[in-house]
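User: My collaborator and I are trying to settle a disagreement about how two of our proteins should look. Neither of us wants to argue from intuition anymore, so we agreed to look at predicted structures for both before our next call. Could you fold the first one, then the second, and keep them clearly separated?

Assistant: That sounds like a sensible way to settle it. I'll keep them separate. The first protein:
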Amino acid sequence: MGSRLLVFAALLGSLIGQTCSALEHGHLHGDGIHHRADISDSLDKRQLPDFAQRNLNTIREIYGLTVYPNNVPILKQGCDKALRPGLFSPYATGRVSPVGDFTGFNDSCEYFFALAPNPEDQEFQGLGIYQADVVEFTSGCPNIAASVVYLRTAKYDQNTRQIDPSHPVSTLAQVAFWQFDAYGQVERYHAWITNLEAWIKAGTGVDFNALLYQKFVPVVLCPGIQQRCTGQYQQYLDVTTCILELELKPFGSFDEVWGDNVACRLIHLILTQVRPDIHCPHVGPTGGGKCVDINYSIDYFSDLELFGLPEGSVFTCGGPLTDPMNPAAVGPFSGSDGNPLPGEAQPPIPDIKPALGPLGGLLDGILKRMPEWL
C-alpha cells in the first residue's frame, strides 16, 4: 500500500511539474495561452520608430493642453500667443463629428482648446478635464497616425479650483486620424467624439433631452450672447428678442451639433470669448455659416473640398484606397452625394413579375390595358 502511494505521489508531482513548466513557457496543450505579465513585458519593450514616437508626442501634447488649467492661457490670450509653434500647421484643416468642419490654424486651435471645458466658465458648471490619456495609437508612416484618447473629467470646486470628490468623475472619448506635414505639424485631422450627450449628462447631471431644460436654455444663453457680442458684433436687439428667436428653433442634440439649432449656438457661445468677430455671427439668428442646416450626405463626406485630396487618399500610408473615377474600385452608385458617379446609369428597378408566376402575367395584362380604360 505504501509503495503504491509513493508511486501515485511521484506521478502527481511529475504531472504538476509538467503543467507548471507548460504555463511558464506560455502554452498549455498547444492552445497558445500566455501570461498577462508576458504580454505586458513584450509591450513595455516595444520600440516605436522615431517618426511614430514624434507623432505620439505631438498628439499627447495637443490633448495635454485640453487639461485644466493648461487650456486657460489659450482662452485668455488666443491661439497665436499662447500656443507654441510646431503643433499645428498654419493650414490645419479638419472635420470633427458631431461639431463640423474647421479650416485654418485658428479654427483648428480653437476647436481643440477653446472648447475644452473650463470650470471657471459658468457654461460648464464647474466641469473640467483633469487628465488626458492616449489609450490607443498607431503610426505606420511618418505623416499618418491614428489615436483614441480618454479625456477624464470631473467637477471642480468653484472656490478652491480643486476637484470636488463629492461628484462622480467621467470620461469623454475621441477617435482621430491625423496627417502631419514635413515638419511634424498637424496639417489635417478627422475626429469623432463619441456619446457627447451621454457624457454631458454624466458630468453635469443635466439631461438636455428633457423638454424643461430645452425651454430654459435660451433664457440662460441669451444674456451671455448679449454680454459677449456687443457693438458691431451684436446679433439681437435685446435679450427678449434673442429668447423669442431661439424659442422658434429646434433645440437639436449634442450628438449632432452641426445645424440651425440651439445646441450649436450653445457650443459657439464658448468660442465668442476668443474671437467675437468670427464667432458672434454663429450664435446669431442666421447661424453665420456655422450653425446652419446641412446636407448630411454631402457635407459630412466632402473630403475633396475640405482636405484638398480625393476620398481615400488623406489618411492612408499607401496609395489611394478608392478611385472616384473608377466605379469598380468603390462599388456602383457611390458618389459622395449619394447619386451615381458621372457616366453611371441609375440602378434598374427590379422586375417582380416573374416572381409572381401566373399573377405576374395578369398584372402585366392589366398594366397594358390600363390606358384603354382611362
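The second protein, kept apart from the first:
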Amino acid sequence: MENHFATCRCPCGQDLQQLGAVDHLLVCPEWKNSSLLYGYAIEQSRSPAGRSMLIYECEALLRLASPKPEIEEEFKVPAKKLPQMQKQPSYDKYVREEEVVSCELCHRKQPDMTNMFFPECCHMMCKSHAIDAIRSQYPIQNYAKCPMDCGYTFSVEEIIDLIGADEFEKLKEKSFQEFISQTGGIVVNCDCGVMSILEPGVPDYAYKDEQGQPISRRAAENMAQFRFRCGNCHKIFCASCKADPYHLGKTCQEHQDFKVAKHCRYCGKVIQSVRPVCSEAACLELYENSCKKILPCGHQCFGTNGETECFPCLEEECAQGGPTIYDYCAICYIDGLGAAPCVKLICGHLLHYHCLNTYLEKRWVGPRITFNFAKCPNCKEWAQVPDNPALTQKMDKILELYDDIRQKGLKRLKFEGMENDPRLNDPNDHYYQKPDIYALDRFAYYECFKCKQPYFGGKKECEENRDRAGYNPQELVCPGCSAICMDGADCKTHGKEFIEFKCKFCCGISAWFCWGTTHFCDPCHTKQNNGDYVSQKKKEDLPQCPGPDLCPLKVRHPPNGEEFSLGCAICRNLASNSREF
C-alpha cells in the first residue's frame, strides 16, 4: 500500500513523521496556538452533532484534496497486508487509515461515518452496538452506558439521535413499567405536564392533621401511598383521586364522602343538623356572631352578625379571582377566612373578626404607644370597618388617641426647634411635607397609668423601640400626675401637658415614675431592669453634668442622684431663648 503521509514540519520547528506525529501535536502549544483547525475542532466537538459534523467535514476535505481513485477501490485492501495495517500505533485509531474508520468494539472497518457512532466518551463504535446497548439497558435501569465499559452514560440527545424520539418514548414507558413492577409505584401525571413515578413510602402513624389531631391508621397508610409533591411545580395532591390539595387526615373514599356530606362550616366535621355548624362550643360561638343572610348565589354570607352590608361570597365557584374561604387571615395565618366570621376593611382586605377585635383590645405591644396594631397587615392603612358598628366604635377611640398624640407631636416639634428640619423640605425625603409623621417618628409617647392621657417621654431613634413585654404599667406616670405626688405645681399658662422632670440618674427627661418616688429616663430604666441598678449607685458613680451650657437640659440642676422638677418646658424655653411659641 502506498504511503500518503509525507514529512512535514510542526509550527514549533520539529519535523513530523507518520509515527509519533499525532503524539507530538497533542502536547505542542505552538500548534494549538497557530492552527486554525484546532480552535474550530474544539468548538465543534462540544456536542455529539458537532463531532459528527467535524468528522464528515474532515472526510470531505480529504477527498477533495486527494487525487486517489474512488474510495471503493482503496477499501479493497489485500489480505496479506492487513497485519501490517493492524500494527499502526494506538494514537492513529481515530484517524482515517487509507480513509477507513474502525469500530473499537468489533474492529470492523467502515469507509465513512455513516454507520459509526462517536459519543462524548470518544469511543468509536458501530451504531448498532450503541443501539443494542440502549435497547437492552434503558428499560431496566432508565439509562444506558457505553458498551466499551468506560462508565459513560449516553445523553438523552445521543439516544434520540440514534433511535429517534418515538422509540425513546416507548423505552421510557417500558422503564416506568419495569420500575412499577419492582417497587409497586404508580405513574403520576401532574397538570404542569411533568410525568413522575411515585414510590410508596412508610406510613407515619404519629402524623397530625391541621388541627393538631393524630390521623387514623387508614389515613396514614393512604398518605404514604398516594400523597404526591410535584418536583416541577411543587403542588401537593393525591395521586389516586387527584384531590388538590391533598386530603390530609382522610382516605380517598372518606374525602369523597366528605365532599358530598353536610359538614360544619368552621371545623369541617360531618354533621346531620339543620344548622350549618356542629355542637362544639367554639363553633356555636362563631355561628352566633356570624351573618345569617343568604347571598344571591345561594351561599350563606361569611360576614358578622349586625353588619350593615355583606361582602361578596368567598366560595371558590363564586369568588371570581377574589379572596376565598381558603385564603389565610393576615393576622393569625392559621385558619382560612372561611373558618370564622370575617370583616371587610375600608381598604378592601378581609380579616377574621375575632382576630382584629383581639388586636384592637390588646392595643400596642410594650410601654411606648404605637399604632401598627390598628392598621391592615397587608397594606398598612387604618383598619377601619365601616360595616361593623362595634369595631367602628373601637377604631374611633384609637383614632382620637392618634390625633391627640399627633397634635402634641407637632407642638413638641416646634418647641424643640425642629419644625424647619431639612428633611421636611426635601422632595426626595420620606418626610417631605409630613411634619406630623416626622414628629411621631422622633418622639416617644406613653399612656399615663393614672390619668390615661398620653405624655411625652423623650426623643427616640426611628429604628429603636425599647419595648418590653414584662414592663409594669403602674410605673408609667405622666409628669403632671407625678408632680402631684411630689408637690409639683401646674403651669398656670400651659397646664400639666409640658410639666417635666429630669431623670434622677442622668441629664435626661424622665419617662418612667417608679415606686411613687423616682423618675427614670428610658435608657436608665432599661439599665435598671437589666440588672445594672443605677438606683444603687453612689452619686459620684453616676454620669456627671457638664454644666448648664453643655447640659442637654440647658438648666442648672442638682447633682445627678437627686429628684428635680424642670417645671413647664415651654416657660423654661421662653425664658432661656425668648422663642415665640
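Some points you might bring to the call about the second protein. Residues 68-98, 462-467 have pLDDT under 50 and may be disordered. The CA atoms of residues 494 and 568 lie 8 Å apart.
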